[in-house]
Design a protein that fits this description.
By secondary structure, the chain is an alpha/beta fold. The chain contains five helices and 18 strands.
């Protein structure tokens, strides 16, 4: 991209390789494991180009950097690749957006690697709104150095079948992580999310909230794992999964998981799956709202809580309109 300040590079991997090989080579294909993982292996095999974002030490770039992946053709397979490197003390916001033009059938196999240096801060927004007949498989691997800050906001709206694997490894002491996830699906969609928070060093902190809104005969899956390795003392990590079923045919599988191998930690998890709260529905109806409107309002509010935390106001407004339109159509 042109017009970027000194110390901030947004370019294709192929174009940046000559000038920034010393930055790229230690990290490209080093964090997203491809041995035993067929889809990252396939993406790596097909790696010819991709997006490269580099923020040098102590540089702060306040404007969101948007990577827009647009699918236009039917019957094709694509392998998007992203490498994001935020060096020590830097700050940036990344928006990774997958969309389509038209109702076409295709396959996207995406891999993103994010490296957050010592004391750096990365806010990562990922929106998947593929075509209704698309297939979307994605892997995101994040590495955190000492005192790094990483916030993830993932919104899943599209694709006939989608799978998102998010793996975060705390490589340094004192890293802090926030993970928000939202899946809003209906019809015959399947949305599958697997996350791993790997606390490999002491004093790590993580807060995770994942929500699913499932209508029609759709199926949502959430498998969230917190791993506290030996020696990762004073870890404070929690996970909450909340799922809302809007029809009798909707289906959710939720599996929160803790594996703790240290004795001085504070970890918690919880999962709740249910329908719209009858007391809340009664309250709105007692205030004069028709039942259908009350249900749509409660469904919208369930999703809007997470969307409002996305650090890009223009995207928040657009997503709120999208969610409101989908809940009104339900």
């Amino acid at each position: 991209a042109t017009g970027m300040p000194q110390g901030v590079v947004v370019a294709s991997l192929a174009a940046a390789l000559d000038a920034h090989a010393a930055v790229i080579e230690p990290h490209l294909a080093r964090h997203a494991a491809f041995d035993g993982e067929v889809f990252p292996a396939l993406n790596t095999t097909c790696l010819r180009d991709g997006a490269f974002i580099w923020v040098a030490s102590n540089r702060k770039y306040p404007a969101p950097i948007q990577l827009l992946f647009v699918s236009t053709q039917t019957g094709v397979a694509a392998y998007p690749r992203c490498l994001v490197i935020a060096e020590a003390g830097s700050q940036c916001t990344l928006v990774e957006d997958y969309v389509s033009l038209g109702d076409v059938v295709y396959f996207n196999n995406a891999v993103t690697e994010v490296v957050v240096g010592e004391g750096a801060q990365v806010r990562h927004v990922r929106v998947q709104r593929e075509a209704a007949g698309a297939f979307h498989i994605a892997t995101c691997a994040v590495s955190l150095a000492r005192d790094a800050r990483y916030a993830s906001h993932t919104v899943t709206l599209g694709a006939r079948l989608s799978r998102f694997n998010l793996g975060i490894v705390q490589q340094g002491d004192g890293a802090e992580v926030g993970l928000d996830g939202l899946a809003l699906i209906s019809g015959r969609q399947l949305a599958d999310t697997h996350t791993l928070m790997d606390h490999a060093r002491p004093h790590g902190r993580c807060r995770q909230v994942h929500k699913c809104i499932v209508d029609g005969g759709a199926h949502a899956v959430f498998n969230g794992k917190i791993l506290v390795r030996p020696g990762a003392q004073l870890t404070d990590s929690s996970q909450q999964s909340r799922c809302l079923l809007l029809s009798d045919r909707a289906h959710v599988d939720a599996k929160p998981q803790l594996e703790i191998f240290a004795d001085d930690v504070k970890c918690a998890h919880g999962a709740a799956i249910g329908q719209i709260d009858a007391e809340q529905l009664f309250y709105l109806r007692s205030r004069g709202l028709p039942e259908s409107h009350a249900r749509k309002l409660l469904t919208y509010a369930f999703a809007a809580e997470l969307i409002a935390r996305i650090p890009v106001p223009s995207l928040v407004e657009r997503l709120e309109q999208t969610v409101l339109a989908q809940t009104q159509a339900a």
